[in-house]
What we know:
By secondary structure, the chain is of the alpha+beta class. The protein is built from 22 helices and 16 strands. Among the domains are: 3-76, no CATH class; 172-339 and 419-457, Transposase Inhibitor Protein From Tn5, Chain A, domain 1, CATH 3.90.350.10; 341-415, no CATH class.
Amino acid sequence: MTHSGLNAYIVAIIKTPLRLHLEIQRHRRNPVGIIRSSYRSEGKVKHSTHGRVTGLSLDQLKVLQAAFRGDVVLKGSPEDFQLINSREYGASRALLELAKQLGLDRALYSRNEPWVRDCLAMIVGRLLYAGSKLALSNQWKNTTLWQQCGTEGKVDVDTHCYEALDRLLERQSAIQRTLASRHLKDGHLVLYDITSSYFEGAYTQSDIVTSGYNRDGKRGHEQMVIALLCSAEGCPVGVEVFAGNTQDATTVPNKIAQLHAQYGLKEIIFVGDRGMITHAVAQKIKGTEGLHTISALTHRQIVELLERKVISPELFDEQRIVEVLDPEDTKRRYCLCRNPQTARREGTTRQRLLERARAQLDQIAGSRRRATEKRLGARVGRVLERTKMGKFIQWQVVEGKLLWSFDQDKIAAERLFDGCYIVSCDVPQEQMATVEVVASYKKLGLVEEAFRNLKTVQIEVRPVFHKTDDRIRSHVFLCTLAYYLQWHFKQRLEPLFAADGTHKDRQWTVRNVIERLAAIRRETILLAGIQFEKVTLPQADQQKILDYLQVSL
Length: 553
């Protein structure tokens, strides 16, 4: 019986001319209400049964019983209706149900053990309340998340979070094999990219946290390196954490071996970011059966092709993609592209840096104080290091004075390649056309989107509050599983986002959807001395979201 149906039934009871009462039978699996009336016959009290009420909870039957007594009407007042507790329900319910529909709980472990439910709570909690595990454990007063996952009352962070994280790390390989079997197929693209995430504070117990090249420009911070495997659609299936000084290309051979050995893939088209397939890596993976690679060349590799006269500047075109074969390796295809927007951006950036270098070098050259060649060289070196324009500048020290000039020929030659890039692959032409090769490489943008969500937008992998390597690894894996859930969440809501407005009329983001669902709450109500719980009825937009997610409350 619905909430409105129950109200209508109470009104009908109040208006009936009979003196009815409700007898609650609790000995059954589900409580049942028996509607009866009493009367005297031949000096004896007898009872008549008028019907049964089923499908209600014990609390609802008690409210109905109070209505039969007349307490709700005769004694009821606004003061008697008390809302004594309110907790978030809708968002956690929807995300937990989605996780179960996706089989994420079964991927964690085949049996419904307490640590599995705790991990589900942390995965969903990462989307609802990004923060420390302790902060999440203290949310039990504000949300029904932990209660829905089987934990009543206060949550113990050690038992429900840290111990569950340890079990999750033990299962990481098996879980990733399960996800890979669902989303990676033989002969399909496998997207692979690497990012870094920096730390603040001391991590003396960790070998992962160390100095290295930071891809976010956060100099002076120690870091870790995160490698992510995704399907062609951008769905994450595997993550690995490396030491902060790990170079991208060094991880590729083992990752390819892992795809073959652990994930059971025989045919792979491996898509890696610029410079991942270096000459050394190419030699290591050469001859690997069933393997094809797609990547982009570094500037140095492009220059090498120019020197070998495999390519020339005029082949780069904004309107079409030109394909060239390597004469030394006829299986190697080079797809030459030019992006006009990138060209303008690169030209503007270079001009700005050249002007900065000009101003600083003119200041050094115009100084009236003579200096030694060594001292002037040091000052010039700092300028060239900061601006990265050394290859365009000719300079010398004559009699303690700096003389310098721009190499206009080199600047002009560099300008020819603004916005130019080369996608390299060894996928046969009959298997993948030129346009498809370039489009496949551009799909790495989906991995970059995953990194943005993991690091900043929604999930916020940092700051990392764990100090040991195992806990750091399990934390990153947990965040990746949260993004796995968010990815599917967003896929199901694609019609909602597609129908959304633009600019100031835009309403929906993943965050806004979650907040809207979180407005559906579970309330604890006290009425006529009876305490019971009710969930707020979804409004039209909330119900639409639930329908898209295929979730019912």
